[in-house]
């Protein structure tokens, strides 16, 4: 038994020795860990710049022909994706630090005392940082990683945001106390020492503010300097005084010369006087009357959908890529390269065909690719402008809602230096799309019913409400549907413009539309007269000159706000009014851009009889939501593609050159209600901005008409009015297929005959004859 025990001991010691690494192995393993940590560090840094480009290559690790843009190629892209995106986000940089530290311990044969402690605290700090970033940066999942986002989401389900914040604060206290040995006494001592040092410095400055050096009876005051080499060369006071006197004399000579030239030239005299006004009173501030006006805040907008970014479905990307490649391979079209750009609702697959492949051959396979992908709205861009690639746009199975809040909050919109900035939504590369309405200068919007036109108009109006003061822009809103724009009534005294005799600022009656358009033409002519007197070319130069007090208000000059005319359903106006609407619209579209009047017209019928050649020629900026046919797409865009959109805010925008696909930002009716309520609750102007007066032909003259001068269709019109018991010119137009002017004259004749009552603003005239029998009796008595 004793011999067996003696044999067992050396075997045990041998086993323990076998687990120890030799010095050479420690150097090799330590260097491996150091180099691996360096590789991970550069991979992580590169990941934040190249992750979108490398998404489609994550499953192509074994393919040597595929190259990633990460600094460590496919290895870096894959490792970074799993550790940072699916892991801990920015906190993942702790991992290469710990690996490097462990490698140094092994490489330099440092005793591993405290190494395990560093790993434990490092991993705790890793988890805490990931959860904290997931809590404070919910909209940026790459910062906290999937672990931070999911852990934060899990904890919020049970404890709420306040509970998660308290948990993070408790963990932070543990880290500071145990790891950094922080105590309340130490913090108090730190602040006391800092405040004492600040007080001593302040007293020192009070006692010795300057140093006085005497040299040849000249006193020269210098600021206190720490080093002698910092002391500037001494300047004699007498020389300095002489220089000052010379400067004063030169300035006096300049002033005399300016006065002489001002007397010689009247224009320069006015400029000097205006400069003096600016010096005395400052520039004119058009917002002074509503100086306490507060712009809407972001909390009035909701965060629709997933706000942290775009959800990436790697399986869907790979599946679509393989289907595209196989479909093209069936038609003997080889592909040299393919990559994906993921958008909110659509993913763009860019392919580079092999040499010798004709682009038209791929373009003709649009339906075949759509069939293989079993997706709605496949659109092929061949080639993509500015790139040597062909684009295939494929809708995502799970679309991401673009909230108006995310678009308004973007730095691109907040820092936009534009006259009338509009944030439409996000492009296919998930970038906020912002344009200047003042440079469009007019916008035509079309699309089938329910595809997003009204939401698009709300996005336009919301953008301007968040960016422009009520003194800077006014809206004229035309709503034939009578329900889409009524919420904006609350901001009438802030942002809306109307005719002097109108009770409501939102125009719903076609008669009022014609009067408003003609009134707007009068406003346009008046503004051009002001520009002529001011000798400027556009509204921007005019307002700049007026704010510099170089234009006299006694001469009729005033600050000119931008005027934006919004028509929600243009086709209805064309059907009922025809030329009476088209003529002033064409005039405004041709001439109004220089004086700050801009038109936004929406219609669900982009046919040639609604959108005529004159209108299209003056509306270079156009938006097309989903339409039902290729003909409608060509009518609005002069190109195909709008019929391939997927709806729900998916739109194409063109400004006369390239066509850009955008997912329109979603702003819901309750959000608009909250914004208008917030603005309307503040102090506004005494009334809405008043347009020039315009007297239409149906205003009711009260004059008598001779029976022989009555229109040939007078009796037919009277029967229509009495039967319907509704006295309006538009009813006569529709029933008898007349123009607006003739219908207006018949209404005046019916008023003179006592059949209808007088003009009552936006209300329909009252019918004074109860039925057809009474009408026949009255007309027969007139002819006797």
Which helices and strands appear, and what pairs or packs with what?
Elements: H1 2-18, H2 23-50, H3 73-88, H4 94-107, H5 115-136, H6 141-179, H7 184-207, E1 211-215, E2 218-222, H8 237-264, H9 266-281, H10 314-330, E3 335-342, E4 346-353, H11 359-363, H12 366-373, E5 379-381, E6 390-395, H13 404-408, H14 411-414, E7 421-427, E8 432-436, E9 443-446, H15 453-467, E10 473-478, H16 492-495, E11 497-498, H17 510-534, H18 539-547, E12 562-567, H19 570-577, H20 579-591, E13 597-603, H21 613-617, E14 621-624, H22 630-637, E15 650-654, E16 659-664, H23 669-680, E17 689-690, H24 714-724, H25 729-736, H26 740-752, H27 772-783
Parallel strand pairs: 9-13, 9-14, 10-12, 11-17, 12-13
Antiparallel strand pairs: 1-2, 3-4, 4-6, 5-6, 7-8, 7-16, 14-15, 15-16
Structure commentary:
By secondary structure, the chain is α/β, with parallel strands linked by helices. The chain is built from 27 helices and 17 strands. Strands 8-7-16-15-14-9-13-12-10 form a 9-stranded mixed sheet. A 4-stranded antiparallel sheet has the order 3-4-6-5. A two-stranded antiparallel ribbon has the order 1-2. α2 packs across α3 and α10 crosses α12. The longest helix is centred in the N-terminal third of the chain and has 39 residues, at about 140-180. It is elongated. Residues about 1-20, about 205-255, about 255-270 and about 695-705 have low confidence and may be disordered.
